[in-house]
Structure formats: structure tokens, C-alpha cells
Design brief:
- The mean pLDDT is 88.
- A five-stranded mixed beta sheet has the order 2-1-3-5-4, with helices on one face.
- The chain has helices at residues 2-17, 26-29, 32-40, 48-51, 63-79, 87-113, 117-128, 131-134, 142-162, 169-185, 189-193, 200-206, 208-233, 239-244, 249-257, 260-264, 273-283, 285-294, 297-305, 307-319, 333-338, 347-367, 372-390, 430-438, 496-499, 501-510, and strands at 396-401, 419-424, 450-455, 477-485, 514-521.
- It is globular, with a radius of gyration of 25 Å.
- It has two domains: 26-40 and 59-250 and 268-367, no CATH class; 372-521, no CATH class.
- Helix 1 runs antiparallel to helix 6, helix 5 crosses helix 6 (87-113) and helix 6 (87-113) packs antiparallel against helix 7 (117-128).
- It has 524 residues and is α/β, with parallel strands linked by helices.
């Protein structure tokens, strides 16, 4: 029975891995956008983390996840004489790679971390049934990679501690490599291994050579990571120059994130946000079941002795010190905490668990900003069709994006015949957006090479849409819809205060979608 259930959940994970939802700009701009521009010469816009004088993001852990598969696709298409691969192939290849990492490494680690053979299968199925596994873990997040590194860090700690007969330098090397990659990937990584790592202290007292070996390997891998980062950010860099003036991205990251004024630009949250909201959003009924189990004395003692629970809860507590708190920061805690839940035999829990993950899976895995990627992939075709219909001869077009996440520019691909200028107006007020369009749209005649991408739920645009605007309207601009994608919901467009709950839901969900309009003047 459990094999059929696991296979079904595996197919569900494949479906969500290939669904183009967009959970956070970092899944594109802190990975694929960076390497696609360098490898394929696709248009790309690097985020500030990579362009500041003190860069805070390391490319060392990103190289095998993005550079290697992209370079292999580049090599294959070069060999067959087809130039660069289409961006949609690259996009889905990266998603497929993240699915494989989740399927192989995460499930394997969870299976090893549960000591009881009786609970292993049920735990793997429970983790595989979480919408977090379906969505976040199959997207190109550094947090998804951190989840795998934390899980395997705990596995290696357990193997080293339990291996009392002989020492294994291979285990020491792998553990040191995981630790270095984890730190250079995200500075939150040590928080998950800090207290579980205390198990190694008695082992190091018995075998000081083990500590020396791990430290030596860690220093070696750290030097390699620093040299790769320094070479990436500084051209014509040599090893001697790295030793003289290294760029240590984790250190820069710590210095940046310990400054509250810096965090304020990304949003400040109450210190209890992780415990009161974020874990509940990620775990749903499983979090409630855990809180109930912690209220009983015997289970409380069991949780204290549970290394997986200790890792997740202690890390959540440490991360709560920082005022900027997003749910994805706790992704490594999700499989660890789910492996501690023993309420899966309850029919009530099972029913609520299925409903919660089905709802959140479709919301986050299909509809959440789900039109941004398909729209960007289709943009060149939309523009070429429209310019041909209007007889426009210009090779340059400007596309304004409003009320969406920042569009990944690398998805436009490379094309020498058409130049597309992407302008991100993300959260600017409607009148300011219109003012920008007014200053950009060329005068009459009707032909225009200006486009607007915006949610169809934005009622502010209704009076400007050509199909609904009256002939006597005084509006100077007209919007002509060229294309739309239905599976798109903008959760940042919720306005319960002004519109009320029911009207907001009817607008955001009932009028869901992302549209592409040609912007022209009315030319009366």
C-alpha cells in the first residue's frame, strides 16, 4: 500500500515541479539569471547581492546546480549546430534537476534519519505528501539546497558518532564539504547543526585525529570556495591575489544581515513570526499536532531527545532573533519536524492534512504568480505577431510589468532581430504607472511598440481597456489585449480593508490571470 501511495505522491511532485508558479524572485535572480547571461548570452539583470562592492552571495554552491546543467545543454546544442537551447528547455531542465535532488537526496536522508524501521516508510510518505516538498523543494531556491545539506549533515553526524570501531576519513571529508557548502550557500545553515553537532564533542575527545581531519578538509574546501568567489567577482584573479585580498561572501553576508537598517529595506517582522505564523503556513495541521504532543509530559521528553526536533526548533529559535523572517527560511525544518509527527494514523488528521496540502499545493505550485514565466517565455512571439499586424518596423520594444514579481529576463532568450527592454514597475501606484506610460508611448499614428503586462484582476485598468472604454472617454491611452494566461493569482493585490473580504476574493480569484496589452494613444 505504501509503495502505491509513494508512487502517486512522486507523480504529484513531478506535476508541481513542471508547473511554472513563481514563489519568490530569489528563485530566479539568485541562480538561473546569473548563469544564463554568462553561458548563453541571454539578457539578464543581476541583483544587488552580486553587484555591490562587498558581494554577499557565493557562486561556489551554485556552480554544480546551475552552471553544470546549463553548460551541458550549451555543449549539446553546439555539437548539433543549433546554437543556444531555447530558454523554456533550460528552465524545465533546471526544475527537473531540483526534482531529482529532492527525490533522491531528501527522501533518502529522511529515511536514514528515522531510527525506527517501523516508522521510516510512514515518515517518508508523510514528507512526500507535503506541499512544501512539491513546490519549494522543486524550485531553484538556495533554501531548497540548504534543506538537503542540513539533512545530510545530520546523517553524517549520526554516522560518525555511531562508528565507534574505526574512523572513516571519507566521512570526515564529506561532512566538511557539506558544512562548507552549507555556510557558503546560506549563513543560516550553522543554526540547524549547532546543537546536534555537540554530539561530536565526546567523539573528538576520544579521537582528536577526527577533529583534525575535519578541520583540515574544511579549511581546504573553504579556500577553494573563496578562490572561486574571488575569481568570479574579480577578473584575472590568481591564487596569490586571493590570499592577499580574498572576497569572503559569508562574512559579507553576516555583516550585512546584522545591520537592522539593512534588514528594514527587506521588511521587518516581529520576533515571534517564525513560531506563530511561518511554521503554521508551512506545516498546517502537522504543526498543531506537534504543539499538542509537546503539551504531554512523556512526549515532551521524547522530543527533547529527538535530534531532528532539536535541530529544527533550535534553529527556528536562533533565526527568530533576526527581525526579517520569511517562511522559506525554515524550509530545512519542515522534513525534520514532519519526521517527528506520529499522528498520521488518525483519520481526522489525514483528512485535514490532505485538504491543506492540496489547497496550498495548487495555490503555491500552480497559481501563485503563475503567469509570469509563461508570459515571459511567450513575449517574443507576442511582440513579433503584433508588430507584423501593425506594420511596425522598429526593432526595439519596451515591456512594462506592473503588479507582478520581477520578470526573469533570461527567459526572453537571445534574438538579434528584436530588442526587448523590460521595465519593472512592480508595486508603484496606478497613477504613477500611467504617467510613465504617458511619457513613453509615441504620438499618433496608432502603431506602438509599448506593452503592459499586468494582472487581469487590476480593476484600475478597466477604464483604459479598449473593449470597455467608451468612444467619448477622455482617456488618452488605450490598452489592447494581445495575450493572457489564466493560471495566475496575485496575492499582493489583496485589499480587504477597502473592498471587503468577499469582493476581494471575487476579484482576485474570479478575475485571475495575467494579461499582455499593447499600449496606444486614442488618437481622436
Amino acid at each position: 500500500m505504501w509503495r502505491r501511495t509513494y508512487l502517486l505522491l512522486l507523480l504529484i511532485r513531478v506535476y508541481f515541479a513542471l508547473s511554472p508558479s513563481y514563489l519568490h524572485p530569489d528563485e530566479n535572480f539568485q541562480g538561473p539569471e546569473l548563469f544564463a547571461g554568462r553561458i548563453f548570452s541571454y539578457p539578464s539583470k543581476l541583483p544587488w547581492e552580486f553587484t555591490t562592492t562587498q558581494p554577499i552571495r557565493s557562486v561556489f554552491p551554485l556552480w554544480p546546480i546551475y552552471d553544470v546543467p546549463m553548460s551541458l545543454l550549451k555543449w549539446f546544442y553546439t555539437e548539433i549546430g543549433s546554437g543556444n537551447p531555447p530558454p523554456q528547455l533550460v528552465y524545465y531542465a533546471l526544475r527537473a534537476g531540483m526534482f531529482l535532488l529532492s527525490f533522491v537526496l531528501e527522501d533518502w536522508a529522511v529515511y536514514e534519519l528515522v531510527p525506527s524501521p517501523r516508522h521510516r516508510r510512514a515518515t517518508v510518505v508523510l514528507v512526500a505528501s507535503s506541499y512544501v516538498t512539491w513546490t519549494y523543494q522543486t524550485h531553484t531556491f538556495s533554501n531548497a539546497l540548504e534543506t538537503l545539506l542540513v539533512a545530510w549533515g545530520l546523517v553524517l553526524i549520526r554516522r560518525i558518532v555511531e562508528n565507534k570501531e574505526r574512523s572513516s576519513f571519507f566521512s570526515y571529508a564529506v561532512f566538511a564539504f557539506i558544512a562548507v557548502v552549507g555556510v557558503f550557500n546560506r549563513i543560516t545553515f550553522p543554526a540547524f547543526l549547532l546543537f546536534p553537532g555537540l554530539q561530536l564533542l565526546p567523539y573528538f575527545q576520544r579521537k582528536p585525529s577526527a577533529f583534525a581531519a575535519i578541520l583540515t578538509f574544511a579549511l581546504l574546501f573553504s579556500l577553494i570556495a573563496i578562490h572561486i568567489d574571488t575569481t568570479f567577482y574579480r577578473e584575472n584573479n590568481s591564487l596569490l591575489q586571493t590570499l592577499h585580498a580574498p572576497i569572503i561572501t559569508p562574512l559579507n553576508n553576516i555583516l550585512y544581515n546584522t545591520n537592522t537598517s539593512n534588514l528594514a529595506t527587506h521588511g521587518l517582522h516581529p520576533h515571534h513570526q517564525h513560531f506563530t505564523a511561518n511554521l503554521l503556513q508551512l506545516l498546517g495541521p502537522a504543526y498543531i499536532a506537534m504543539l499538542l504532543s509537546l503539551c504531554t509530559f512523556p512526549l515532551n521528553l521524547r522530543w527533547i531527545r529527538n535530534v531532528r526536533a532539536l535541530s529544527a526548533l533550535s534553529a527556528t529559535l536562533l533565526l527568530s532573533i533576526f527581525p526579517h523572517q520569511e517562511p522559506r527560511f525554515l524550509l530545512p525544518a519542515v522534513p525534520l519536524l514532519l519526521s517527528c509527527v506520529r499522528m498520521h494514523r488518525s483519520r481526522l488528521f489525514l483528512a485535514v492534512w490532505i485538504l491543506f496540502n492540496a489547497a496550498m499545493g495548487f495555490l503555491m505550485g500552480v497559481y501563485h504568480q503563475g503567469g509570469v514565466v509563461p508570459t515571459q517565455l511567450a513575449m517574443r512571439g507576442i511582440i513579433n505577431t503584433n508588430t507584423a499586424a501593425q506594420g511596425i518596423t522598429t526593432r526595439e520594444s519596451s515591456v512594462f510589468w506592473w503588479k507582478t514579481y520581477s520578470p526573469p529576463q533570461w527567459l526572453l532568450g537571445a534574438d538579434d532581430t528584436t530588442s526587448i527592454n523590460t521595465i519593472d514597475l512592480m508595486g508603484v501606484p496606478g497613477l504613477e504607472m500611467l504617467s510613465t506610460l504617458e511619457n513613453t508611448v509615441p504620438p499618433c499614428p496608432l502603431s506602438s511598440h509599448i506593452y503592459l503586462v499586468a494582472p487581469t484582476s487590476a480593476t484600475f485598468l478597466d477604464s483604459y481597456v479598449a473593449e470597455s472604454a467608451s468612444e467619448t472617454s477622455s482617456q488618452d491611452l488605450r490598452l489592447y489585449r494581445l495575450w493572457s494566461y489564466r493560471n495566475h493569482i496575485n496575492l499582493d493585490d489583496l485589499d480587504f480593508v477597502d473592498d471587503g473580504v468577499l469582493e476581494t476574493v471575487k476579484r482576485v480569484v474570479g478575475r485571475r490571470g495575467l494579461g499582455v496589452w499593447s499600449v496606444r494613444r486614442s488618437c481622436k
